[in-house]
Amino acid sequence: MTAVSLGVPSIPAKPLAPRRKSRQIMVGNVPVGGDAPVSVQSMTTTLTADVNATLQQIAQLTAAGCQIVR
């Protein structure tokens, strides 16, 4: 089998500018910023007046691995 090049460089590209240092904050129990890992977040698309549908969507997002729901 022959390897196929996907165009991905083998050596990471040099950053254009150094990242600025950010401070870490907590969103509930989830750390955001600083050296915290990237967190998965999403927003609901239901009408917030429809409480049952919104709670169902939040449960589905949580089951899919979402850590912050707005």
Provide an overview of this structure.
A two-stranded antiparallel ribbon has the order 1-2. The protein contains one helix and four strands. The mean pLDDT is 90. The chain is 19% helix and 14% strand. It has one helix at residues 51-63, and strands at residues 25-27, 30-32, 41-42, 68-69. The protein is flat. It is of the alpha+beta class and 70 residues long. Strand 1 (25-27) and strand 2 (30-32) form a beta hairpin.
Query: Which sequence of SSEs, written as H and E, runs from N to C?
Result: EEEHE
From the N-terminal CA to the C-terminal CA, the straight-line distance is: 47 Å
By secondary-structure content and strand pairing, the structural class works out as alpha+beta
What characteristic shape results from the CA principal axes? flat
What is the spatial order of strands in the main beta sheet?
1-2
Count of DSSP strands: 4
- Poorly predicted runs of 5 or more residues: none
Largest sheet features: 2 strands, antiparallel
Which features characterize this protein?
single chain; 70 residues; alpha+beta; two-stranded parallel ribbon; flat
Summarize the structure.
The chain is built from 1 helix and 4 strands, in the order βββαβ.
Blueprint (SSEs and pairs):
Elements: E1 25-27, E2 30-32, E3 41-42, H1 51-63, E4 68-69
Parallel strand pairs: 3-4
Antiparallel strand pairs: 1-2
